[in-house]
Amino acid sequence: MIDDHETGYFAEDDSARVVTARNANARDERLKQVMEVITRHLHAAIKEIEPTREEWMQAIQFLTRTGHMCDDWRQEYILLSDVLGVSMLVDAINSRRPTGATENTVLGPFHIGGAPEYPMGSNICLDGKGEDLVVRGRVLDVDGNPVEGAKIDVWQANDEGFYDVQQKGIQPDFNLRGVFRTGPDGIYWFKAVRPRHYSIPTDGTVGQLLEDLGRHPFRPAHLHYIISADGFEEITTHIFDPDDPYLHSDAVFGVKESLIAQFNRVDDPNRIRQMGFSGNHFWDVAFDFVLAPRP
Ligand code: BEZ
Ligand code: FE
Questions:
Q1: Cβ neighbours of residue 271 closer than 8 Å, sequence gap 6 or more
Q2: Residue-wise pLDDT tens digits, 1-52
Q3: 106 lines ligand 1 (CB under 6 A)
Q4: Full DSSP string of 12-46
Q5: Is 176 a pocket residue for ligand 1 (Cβ < 6 Å)?
Q6: Which residues have C-beta within 8 Å of that of residue 240, sequence separation ≥ 6?
Q7: How far apart are CA 262 and CA 266, in angstroms?
Q8: Ligand 1 and 207: CB distance under 6 A
Q9: Bridge partner list, 191
Q10: 200 Cα–ligand 1 center, Å
Q11: 204 lines ligand 1 (CB under 6 A)
């Protein structure tokens, strides 16, 4: 007797239905649904592309080489998802927020736990290299009230576009990383350096793909944040430098208009001295973060 899921032999014009019907007895409904959608779209793509056997083998080899690039530190599949805009799409779907709340963007691979917790106003730049920067603002709820006890975890690349973990022995450990906690006024401020744009890793399959597609591998200069507070949705986000040449072509599509900050140059010797800087200018960035209540 023919079972429900044994719905016929494979046929080009009915291919996705024949395959998905086999999953009628799946143990997990969500898996069944996911595989039905993926099979449908994959078959539609293959029908539109009509790859030769050689082209299909190239695709298999691309995925194989991508897997071989992966280890505990390097995740070429996440990078592939990043440059295809899929990481940002998954992030958008999972961080829909009320109007006015700060938007999310990609986490990226360079966050590490255990960064030192500093008092407000500390300098997270441990090697004194780069143009001085002051970042300040408030953590607020959607009604504009200050959020007390918000944890601000910040990390950034240096003025050459490298994170500390990419330059072990060159930059001090935990350079340009720090954790701050807001008081009752919700105010935060810290000193840092103006970050620079940088390239995502290009020595793997994703780098080759970008080159073949005529795309550059750069991310515009940014500071990363994870901000959390009791009773609020955690946000993972960046603020971006508006003058960066790659602002409109981020290799991983992480830029959102609401996350573009203003970097104001300060040349006033009194303000430079007040801040304890020794150069002839610094950059001043004011940016408020707005947290949505936890649903
Ligand atoms: C980052 O901003 O750190 C990053 C994000 C995605 C891919 C590579 C780096
Ligand atoms: Fe980054």
A1: 282
A2: 556 566 679 999 999 999 999 999 999 999 999 999 999 999 999 999 999 9
A3: yes
A4: GGGHHHHHHHGGGG-S-HHHHHHHHHHHHHHHHHH
A5: no
A6: 220, 221, 222, 247, 255, 259, 260, 261
A7: 12
A8: no
A9: 123, 134
A10: 7
A11: no
